[in-house]
Amino acid sequence: MRPCVGEAILTFDMTHQPASDAVDPLAIEWRPADGDVVLLAADERDLDTVRLLLATLPVTARGTVFVEVESADRIDPIEAPPRFSVRWLVRDRGQRLERSVDAWLEEMLPISAFGAASVYAWVASRGPARLLTSD
Question: Which residues are CB-neighbours of 16 under 8 A, at least 6 positions away?
Answer without folding.
Answer: none
